[in-house]
Amino acid sequence: MKTIRKMMCATALAAVSLNGMAQDAPAAPAAAPAPDKEQKAEAPKLDDETVKQRVGYFLGHRMGQQLAEIPTFNLDDVDANSLLQGIKDGLNNKVDDKMKEVEPALDIFRQRMDERYEAKAEANLEAGKKFMEENAKKPGVKTLPSGVQYIVVKPGGDVKYNVEKDGDDPTFKLMYEGRLIDGTVFDKSEKPVEFKLQLIPGFTDALKAMPVGAKWKVFIPSELAYKEAGPGIIGPNSTLIFDIELLEIIPGNSPATPPAGGGQLTPEMLQQLLEAQQQGAAK
Q1: Is residue 238 part of a domain?
Q2: What is the CATH number of the domain that holds 151?
Q3: What whole-number distance in Å separates Cα of residue 56 and Cα of residue 63?
Q4: Selected catalytic residue, list 150, 161, 172, 186
Q5: Selected catalytic residue, list 150, 166, 200, 249
Q6: Strands, E, within the chain: which ranges?
Q7: pTM over 0.85
Q8: What pLDDT does 269 receive?
Q9: If you count Cβ atoms within 10 Å of the first and of the last residue's Cβ in the chain, which end, N or C, has fewer?
Q10: Is residue 230 one of the residues assigned to a domain?
């Protein structure tokens, strides 16, 4: 467990750089026609101070997003003046005795992050179990064999996933919103998105059971979600709530063999999935 958390911390710290700052900028369309002169918008005129402020905020915001990948990190863990000085020295390729003193401090920092992570994981696990137990008693709540709970908001039609018809790699088109049990929204589709079945097990179970056209509120216990590897704002051992509207099931091209069940992606692939959806929502 500690090895995983140290890797997460190290990866997040190493990722705070200017490399890839524009990684989610949309690519320019090929052979785009030149706009007419009447349609061409003039670039806004900004003074130098405004440019500095806005670019500074942009870079700081990106650094903050990367640091947020350390689930238990907060700004009180670092000295703001030292952070700014480190940025300046890094830009100037300045290396001095301060860098030699870093490793012992990083060891203490990692230990603190580990301790907080363990405490958060335990608290989330207990809160999630209590939530699921109480939620199961509420009117309208049903439970799938896997333990996923759901409420039918809209029943939909008669068409459901069928391995003989849809194959074992169909595409599910849907709208969704993901929240923590405290109401925090961690992901939301702004337009229909398409997923294969290689998602967290609880989400996969819901998609397989839902009729096309249905809207469900789905409650996924941590053991069927991200377990201890909850990325970013999700955190370890988090119980998740999803509002899902299943719009369409697009049959796959592979042979119709019985699926082995919802497989869990690696933490790296799970993070890529979240980032891809955030980028899509931002466009």
Answers
A1: yes
A2: 3.10.50.40
A3: 11
A4: 186
A5: 200
A6: 142-143, 149-154, 171-180, 185-188, 193-195, 215-220, 240-250
A7: no
A8: 55
A9: C
A10: yes
